[in-house]
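Below is a filled-in request sheet from our internal design queue. Each sheet records the structural input a requester submitted and the sequence that came back. We keep these sheets so that new team members can see what a complete request looks like end to end.

REQUESTER: design group, bay 2
PRIORITY: normal
MODE: inverse folding
CHAIN LENGTH: 232
BACKBONE (tokenized):
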């Protein structure tokens, strides 16, 4: 994580629950080639290699296009598109040398499939993630490396993004109060549910593990059923 202190705290929590050495927190800026390479080096030196990559760097911004600055646009592209490219490229270098296959999971967004009102920069970058994953799946499939994507929607619980100005911005886009967002998102799903972090974790676990051994280039939605985001 770019927040190295926060990553260390999570690693310590995991070690406390599952044993010493089961987690390593490192600082990584996904927009820096040097930082990405250093983070992977730390992982390889600690654990001997790489088997799975879950790419989950995330930011969000919400403004009408006429109020979206070039800096805001570029920041979304730098982190959500270029960052996913740099991290994947470094992972593939290691996975290719290992010759043991592997699994890559991109955490994208419902906005990568459906146009997001007042969120052109974010939605465009998320769409780029999805197509990057498909391109990579095609390229590295012969090496036994699978690349899939998860598309969640509105994970408000425990999210640093939703605890920022993003909540107020999205509420404004829908002309509702910020405290009405959970119900707004629940009502727009066909299952009438809110999506929780553990729901997304379950989808990631499936795509990263042996149960999906014959699946690649896939987009798995975890959104309670947003009709516009159906992939077929």
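RETURNED SEQUENCE:
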């Amino acid at each position: 994580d770019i927040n190295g202190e926060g990553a260390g705290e999570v690693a310590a929590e995991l070690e406390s629950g599952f044993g010493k050495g089961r987690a390593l927190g490192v600082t990584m800026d996904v927009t820096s080639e040097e930082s990405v390479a250093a983070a992977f080096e730390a992982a390889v030196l600690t654990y001997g290699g790489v088997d799975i990559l879950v790419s989950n760097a995330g930011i969000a911004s919400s403004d009408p296009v006429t109020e979206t600055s070039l800096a805001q646009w570029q920041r979304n592209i730098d982190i959500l598109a270029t960052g996913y490219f740099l991290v994947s490229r470094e992972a593939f270098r290691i996975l290719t040398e290992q010759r043991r296959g592997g699994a890559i999971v991109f955490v994208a967004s419902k906005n990568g499939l459906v146009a997001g009102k007042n969120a052109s920069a974010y939605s465009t970058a998320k769409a780029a993630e999805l197509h990057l994953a498909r391109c990579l799946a095609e390229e590295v499939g012969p090496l036994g490396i699978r690349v899939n994507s998860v598309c969640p929607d509105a994970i408000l619980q425990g999210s640093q993004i939703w605890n920022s100005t993003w909540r107020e911005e999205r509420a404004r886009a829908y002309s509702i109060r910020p405290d009405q967002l959970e119900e707004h998102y629940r009502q727009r799903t066909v299952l009438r549910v809110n999506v929780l972090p553990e729901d997304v974790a379950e989808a990631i676990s499936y795509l990263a593990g042996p149960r999906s051994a014959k699946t690649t280039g896939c987009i798995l939605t975890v959104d309670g059923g947003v009709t516009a985001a159906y992939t077929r």
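SHEET NOTES:
- The first strand starts at residue 52 and ends at 55.
- The beta strands are 52-55, 102-107, 145-152, 219-222.
FILED BY: M.R.
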